[in-house]
Amino acid sequence: MKKDIILGGVGGQGILTIATVIGMAALSEGLQLKQSEVHGMSQRGGDVQSHLRLSSDPIASDLIPEGRADMILSVEPLEALRYFNMLNRENGWLITSINPFKNIADYPDMENVLGEITKLPRYITIDADKIAQAQGSVKAANIVVLGAASPFLSLKYASIEEAIRKLFGKKGEEMVKLNLHALKAGREFTEKNRKV
Amino acid sequence: MDKLLLLGDEAIAQGAVDAGISGVFAYPGTPSTEITEYIQASKEAKERHIVSQWSANEKTAMETAIGMSYAGKRALVCMKHVGLNVAADAFINSAITGAHGGLVVVSADDPSMHSSQNEQDSRFYGKFAQIPILEPSNQQEAYDMTRYAFELSERFGTPVLFRITTRLSHSRSGVGRGEVLPQNGMNLPSDLKQFILLPSIAKKQYNTLLGKQLAFQEESEKSGFNKLYDGKDKSMGIVACGIAYNYLLENYRGGEIPYPVLKVGQYPISRKLVREFYDQVDSVLILEEGYPILEELFRGILDEGKPVKGRMDGVLPRAGELNPNIVGTALGMEVAEGYDLPDVLKGRPPLLCDGCSHWDSFEALNEAMKDYSPGRVLSDIGCYTLSALPPLESINSCVDMGASITMAVGAAEAGMVPAVATIGDSTFTHSGMTGLLDAVNRKVPITVVLLDNSTTGMTGGQDSAGTGKLEDIVKGIGVEEEHIRIIKPLRRLHEENVKVFKEELAYQGVSVIIPRRECVQTLARRMKLKHAKKKVTQENSAQ
Fold it and tell me: Where along chain B do the CATH 3.40.50.970 domains lie?
């Protein structure tokens, strides 16, 4: 088993939380893991990404080679475009929220952004903010996107749930419930809407 | 024991704690910050009373560590690569004094300049100081090498330079721990003159250092961090340093590498292993993250030996970090390509946070500067450097920590009046204070804007050395009291603040304006903590 995932977003959108949840789930299944993160200047509202590599065999590089990512998981649609060069043309999936984070003056038309995404053979676009809101808080939008990606992660759903319980447990039962519901709603969206 | 999931930086930190350090000394700087933060947050480190408070700058950090080493205990010093420039005087001379308690200096390089103003290669500093250098390829090695570095330092009585680069600093993987060693007791060097670098003693000490060079080289052969792997195809041999080794392995995806490979993780490199490697191959490919240091050595001045490929002949790019596909291309392999980046894609540069006090400070400054020709604002290193970008476009320089004030002095001496320096509180106490003293002594007309958000913001909000002391420092340096102006950078006080700026710009002497408002990031963190504490107290009292 090998899953190479590029996580994309804007500083402060919670992609490291997604990475932590997937990482904990992977470790609980006995997989090996490497996860590279961006710290420093870009965290100030700039683009941030994380390379997350899971494998049953030892992992060499901390960076995913270009054109070899099995998945781009993005919490922002323009950021999803930024890693097109990383995606595996044979089997790569792109999972992204469609909720834009507009902190630049020349943010392109959403129609054009989504137009590029829907040209890909395998993608899920999800209104994560709306779904998270329906579960109780827009703060869980990142976990909604994780839920939408979960059918393609080759991890047991129960392992991901357990990781969420562990990670959010410190913050109280309410936060655990919110995020478990967000995860489930995201997953159900993909199961209903996937075309491939 | 279960493996810990650690960043490369954290693996160094854990390695140092387990190696029995008594102190970590550092000034924050990407990508090195997490080493010290990990130790500050570590329960074990607290129980072991490991000193971990931030230092005012890298030089004071380095010197404090030399002092701890003098007193017989193990000390870790951490900084980003350009921090080693600041610490260089102490660092280079520590090679001459030698170490007593284990002394390990971590310098985190930032090739591709993700968060830095250059991509200098710290291995040059190790060579310059003529001390051993370690360079891990992965997180486990980072842990193991840190432990080894302390042992090496004490065995040879030398400081050790530990080089890491951004990708390993900030990448997580499983790390297994070893036995936890006790700390050294306090004990002074048997020769109490060893650390007195008067010429007569320094000459002796320097000869001692020179005398260790061959042993350093031989150690690289025995430690196992230089390793020669056999390969059937002798048409080429590959030298892979540090993290470049992983990119090489990645291209063979667990399969066998057909060429002989010399994996390098310790310098000075073992001449015996190089001889064994070089004799059996027809050409050499050199993979190193950073400058072509080994490549230059392999080529020599005349480059008349076996053909060498690397960064100097364009087989690898001359600048920037390596990655698996760059290495794959250099190996002559076909590398995968993803999809083309769409034309509609736009860049998203970093930005000052919403509500950041710097917005209000620079908007007021911009307005006050409208009365003068452009190009007069010398600046410095921190979040506020982002005011160089639209929409603010306020500043005209960013060179090194503290340079804003001294550059303003020089420009004012050249006739640029008014000259403005903008500098953050942490940068000011790091390296700006001495420049301000120059300005006062020269009575040169400059306006210093000392942006006080009471934290080291850019690196994530570490304590700032001057918090609560800035006016006293400025006054003590000799700035006249009526020209020390404290303002509150707020939108609603804009007009008032512009007026203060205009008054001080017109003053023909040194003035210091201190816009003071807490960083929004640290404020949010503080409020969250306060809220959480309140909640706990309420729950406790309800029970």
Answer: 3-211, 357-522
